[in-house]
Automatic annotation (TrEMBL):
<dbReference type="InterPro" id="IPR012337">
    <property type="entry name" value="RNaseH-like_sf"/>
</dbReference>
<dbReference type="InterPro" id="IPR036397">
    <property type="entry name" value="RNaseH_sf"/>
</dbReference>
<keyword id="KW-0233">DNA recombination</keyword>
<dbReference type="InterPro" id="IPR001584">
    <property type="entry name" value="Integrase_cat-core"/>
</dbReference>
<dbReference type="InterPro" id="IPR047930">
    <property type="entry name" value="Transpos_IS6"/>
</dbReference>
<dbReference type="InterPro" id="IPR032874">
    <property type="entry name" value="DDE_dom"/>
</dbReference>
<feature type="domain" description="Integrase catalytic">
    <location>
        <begin position="52"/>
        <end position="226"/>
    </location>
</feature>
<comment type="function">
    <text>Involved in the transposition of the insertion sequence.</text>
</comment>
<keyword id="KW-0238">DNA-binding</keyword>
<protein>
    <submittedName>
        <fullName>IS6 family transposase</fullName>
    </submittedName>
</protein>
<dbReference type="Pfam" id="PF13610">
    <property type="entry name" value="DDE_Tnp_IS240"/>
</dbReference>
<keyword id="KW-0815">Transposition</keyword>
<dbReference type="InterPro" id="IPR052183">
    <property type="entry name" value="IS_Transposase"/>
</dbReference>
Length: 226
């Protein structure tokens, strides 16, 4: 359950603003105007605080509630600009295009890949295979995970498939995320970028129907608050 203690606006108003921002891709100035047209006077700085505070919580609950995914994964990273610098958004979907996991990283190396895979395995279980592009760091990250399995005497080995063709699915999925973040006019800090992107990913899971039969998207988002 998301804690709204101390909030000066109704929970429904806060959630509507956060959902609208992470689902439809608008600037905070635009969202301020949209809320005003609905009779809610709230400045863009407050809207930003809401998104940064509540988006990660919604994503955490969505991760727990999403439907089971397939054992064949597609993994890749894309670029996000923060304070004029490029950082890396690691993402994975299954063979059906369902979102598995995501992680924003300041670096694109074996350590970052290993951390991403560790989180993805914890949240989604162990896949039979992971398809990647020709990234050496991603291949090395999977190799490190397999080494850990071996040290722990776990009789499992994740197969690595390098195929740009098979990875077209996640590259197309990247485009949806980038289409939403473009009107946001950039991020001022790594923390705010990570929080906002978590909300975008949660809204994307709802759009894909991963939290159950799709009804009203906002209603499903609001249900994440408990």
């Amino acid at each position: 359950m998301i804690d709204f203690k101390g909030a000066h606006y109704p929970q429904s108003v806060i959630l509507l603003a956060v959902y609208f921002y992470v689902r439809y891709g608008v600037s905070y100035r635009d969202l301020e105007e949209i809320m005003a047209e609905r009779g809610v006077t709230v400045d863009h700085a407050t809207l930003n605080r809401w998104v940064v505070k509540y988006s990660p919580e919604a994503a955490r609950v969505a991760q727990k509630r999403k439907a089971s995914t397939a054992e064949s994964w597609r993994m890749d990273e894309t670029y996000i600009k923060v304070r004029g610098e490029w950082v890396y958004l690691y993402r994975a979907v299954d063979r059906d295009g369902q979102t598995l996991d995501f992680m924003l990283s300041k670096r694109r190396d074996t350590k970052a890949a290993k951390k991403f895979f560790a989180n993805a395995l914890y949240n989604n279980g162990i896949p039979k295979r992971i398809t990647i592009d020709k990234s050496r760091s991603n291949a090395a990250g999977i190799k490190e995970v397999n080494k850990i399995f071996k040290r722990l005497s776990i009789p499992i080995k994740i197969d690595t498939v390098c195929s740009k063709y098979l990875n077209n699915m996640i590259e197309q999925d990247h485009r949806f995320i980038k289409r939403l973040t473009r009107p946001m006019l950039g991020f001022k800090s790594f923390a705010s970028a990570a929080a906002t992107l978590a909300g975008v990913e949660a809204a994307n899971m709802i759009r894909k129907g991963q939290l159950g039969q799709l009804k009203c998207g906002f209603r499903q988002f609001a249900e994440l608050a408990g």
